[in-house]
Write a structure and sequence with these properties.
The protein is of the alpha+beta class and 729 residues long. It contains 14 helices and 38 strands. The chain has three domains: 317 residues, alpha-galactosidase from lactobacil brevis (Beta-galactosidase, Chain A, domain 5, Distorted Sandwich); 146 residues, TIM Barrel, CATH 3.20.20.70; 88 residues, Golgi alpha-mannosidase II (Immunoglobulin-like). Bound molecules: alpha-D-galactopyranose. The site of alpha-D-galactopyranose (GLA) has 12 residues, from loops.
């Protein structure tokens, strides 16, 4: 049983394989959070709460003379604004009478078989017997406002999910100002929080800070999860390392504006809340209506970051990524973007495809520039009609020619955007997200379409589906190349303008759901100027996401390192590009670009016609090697072996198969030295008692893990190696 309920103490204990989560219905129905961490059985941990009369800490009226019960410092499951809990909160409303308080108390609960789903929103799923659901029903007895707290328990996967549904059970309209997905209280301070910040072409850089008193947050107001911050954070012991210490990962399964906020309070306790960003948000709840928050996935590890990451990777692979491409081997692709940019025609593309086929590449992806008036990024978005003049024929013909070479054909689209210089803009200017009377804000010379309007989504969907119906397209790269600003919808009344961001996401998710249902054979790759929408929400629809527009192998070491904390290798779109690199100008060996790109869903993005015969031989070899190790890379456990932020001379990582029989060790030297030091990498996750062969050398697992592996001396800058280690029978 994953859900234990002690009827007498009214304590709920949710148990996964290694963790437990506990809450209690306390006096007058106040729902207290008691514990999250290593398994503890069903012992009621409310004895850990210091009940005392604390200055300036009010008490619910029902407590009368008892001053030892206070929402000001008691740990909560879903903290409400306006009733004496002054810490960062989950829910804020404006009631029909103008007051701002909501006071949710326990009413009842339901335990359901299986893991709940959320209508219109991405959420984890569980196979038969893999999940359970607890729904706690709460109510504010003054206004009739109701709340359902959803807890999903994936016992084997060690995951607990949370989501909330706010229901107006009263008689007056209520304005919802804030509706977070969850609140997680800890009775300690001094925790570190690890978060992933960045910018376009440098996403998910790891930052680790000690939490200080007061509130600190990361988030996005950009309408996407963003390059700047990621909706995945970790709270941990200050001493937590890859292998030791307690840590808690929280991943929001949502792709729009978000907030992750931590607060250390006056009594040295810590709270984390996570959910939709409240800044651009409000929602009119008429009597009988409800609002559903997105889901948060929580994982605890008592043994450091490595197991935490492995669990998040498994969670994404087994309980989030859907469809046939979740497990099927993904084709190695050539994308023409960095090879040609907008400057291509049908013949040029076919020549690239021929060259690619000859090297073992399996799919040509036609990127931006194939439609409307789109020879630059100043025009054409919204006109999803094929530029047959440029292609020298129809798209169907081009795809057929690519197929005739024995390759699959994939296509780039950016359905959520509109260029001012487009027929769509001329015929439907009102489809643009723009505040009437304001010139607005353009980015990459484009505007965002108002996807909060169902007819706009339907209109674009019709155009895109027409192409997908006519042409044999087996892969779609779905891009989004600006941040949203100037939120406004001509279709919503004045008092509903705060609903646009969330309605936009519902529109986007509906489109994506229609796409994956109608074309289950299509492999979808998410993208937003690289990794600007790299989140668990998108992974529900697109099994992989273009990790960054920065294809420089050396910069990618950090980007992919940060990404690996929450997201699986299979989700990381990564390509070998030209040298000097187009973003940084850095020169790196082709072998190294291959080594780095292989830590993901692999492809090429350069003009293969410019490669020398020797380079082509290297590419051929990389492709064979990637195919050979595909299962190890995609299904194995990924180990970070070095910290790219430390003073290291190299960066190393390894893939270890589940049965520990195989290992692929990868390393890139990042600093050349005269008279060089020896560089030793300690492996992880091997079977200590087994003997592993690498070429003509044999090592024991324990020697490799505790002694280490000595890298060869480098011969050139940014040299890299891949060593395949196989356990002997
Ligand atoms: C974005 C993507 C690139 C490419 C261009 C095309 O920047 O991240 O990979 O598709 O758009 O305009």
């Amino acid at each position: 049983m994953a859900i234990l309920l002690n009827q007498e103490t009214k304590v709920f204990t949710l148990q996964t394989k290694t963790s437990a989560y506990q809450m209690k219905v306390a006096d007058y129905g106040v729902l207290l959070h008691l514990y999250y961490g290593r398994r503890i059985g069903d012992c009621d941990l409310s004895y850990l709460i210091q009940r005392t009369d604390r200055g300036f800490c009010g008490n619910p009226y029902e407590m009368q003379q008892d001053r030892t019960f206070s929402l000001d410092y008691f740990p909560q499951e879903y903290s409400c604004f306006g009733i004496g809990d002054y810490r960062t909160d989950c829910v804020k409303v404006i009631n029909g009478d103008g007051s701002c308080a909501v006071d949710y108390r326990y009413r009842s609960h339901r335990i359901l078989e299986g893991k709940y789903a959320l209508e219109g929103l991405p959420a984890l799923f569980a196979g038969e017997g893999q999940g359970e659901t607890l729904v706690i029903e709460m109510e504010d007895q003054c206004t009739g406002m109701k709340l359902e707290l959803y807890y999903g328990i994936l016992e084997e996967a060690d995951v607990i999910t949370r989501a909330a549904k706010i229901i107006n059970g009263g008689e007056k309209t209520v304005l919802l100002k804030r509706a977070m997905s969850m609140c997680l209280d800890f009775n300690t301070d001094g925790m570190d929080w690890v978060h992933f910040y960045g910018k376009h072409t440098m996403e998910r850089e790891l930052e680790r800070n000690r939490l200080h008193h007061g509130r600190q947050s990361v988030g996005s107001e950009r309408g996407t999860s963003s390059h700047q911050h990621n909706p995945f954070v970790i709270l941990c012991d200050p001493s937590c390392t890859e292998e030791t210490g307690e840590c808690y990962g929280a991943g929001l399964i949502y792709s729009g504006s978000f907030l992750a906020e931590a607060e250390v309070d006056q009594f040295h306790q810590t709270r984390l809340v996570m959910g939709i960003s409240p800044d651009q948000f409000s929602w009119m709840l008429n009597p009988g209506e409800s609002f559903q928050t997105p889901e948060v996935a929580l994982i605890y590890s008592g043994e450091g970051f490595t197991p935490l990451s492995h669990k998040f990777h498994r969670m994404a692979s087994e309980h989030l990524i859907r469809g046939q491409w979740a497990k099927k081997r993904r084709p190695i692709l050539i994308n023409n973007w960095e090879a040609t940019y907008f400057n291509f025609n049908g013949e040029k593309l076919l020549n690239i495809a021929r060259e690619a086929k000859e090297l073992g590449i399996e799919m040509l992806v036609l990127d931006d520039g194939w439609f409307g008036k789109r020879d630059s990024d100043y025009s054409g978005l919204g006109d999803w009609t094929v530029n047959e003049k440029k292609l020298g024929g129809s798209l169907k013909e081009l795809a057929e020619k690519v197929n005739a070479l024995g390759m699959k054909f994939g296509l780039w689209v950016e359905p959520e955007m509109i260029s001012e210089d487009s027929n769509l803009y001329r015929s439907h200017p009102d489809w643009t997200m723009r505040i009437p009377g304001r010139p607005g804000n353009v980015a990459r010379s484009q505007f965002v379409l108002d996807f909060s309007r169902p007819e706009v989504v339907d209109g674009i969907q019709e155009m895109i589906f027409k192409i997908l119906d006519e042409v044999n397209i087996e892969y779609v790269k779905w891009d989004f190349n600006r941040s949203i600003s100037n939120y406004f919808s001509t279709a919503l009344p004045v008092n509903r303008q705060g609903e646009i961001g969330y309605r936009y996401m519902l529109g986007l998710y509906r489109f994506l759901e229609n796409l994956v249902t109608r074309y289950p054979h299509i492999l979808l790759e998410g993208c937003s100027g690289g990794g600007g929408r790299f989140d668990f929400g998108m992974l529900y629809y697109s099994p992989q996401i273009w990790c960054s527009d920065d294809t420089d192998a050396v910069e990618r070491l950090k980007i992919q390192y940060g990404t690996s904390f929450g997201y699986p290798i299979s989700a990381v779109g990564s390509h070998v590009s030209a040298s000097p690199n187009h973003q940084t100008g850095r020169k790196t060996p082709l072998e190294t670009r291959g080594t780095v790109a292989m830590a993901g869903s692999f492809g090429y993005e350069l003009d293969l016609r410019c490669l020398s015969p020797e380079e082509k031989e290297i590419v051929r070899h990389q492709i064979q090697e990637y195919k050979q190790h595909y299962d190890l890379i995609h299904e194995g456990d990924y180990y970070r072996l070095t910290d790219p932020y430390g003073d290291c001379r190299g960066v190393a990582w390894a893939f270890v198969s589940q049965d520990k029989a195989e290992c692929l060790l990868c390393a890139v030297l990042t600093r050349l030295q005269a008279n060089p030091d020896g560089v030793i990498v300690k492996l992880k996750g091997l079977n200590p008692g087994k003997r592993y062969r690498a070429g003509d050398k044999v090592y024991t697992g324990e020697a490799l893990m505790y002694g280490g592996f000595l890298l060869p001396l480098p011969r050139e800058e940014y040299q890299s190696w891949r060593f395949y280690l196989k356990a002997e029978e």
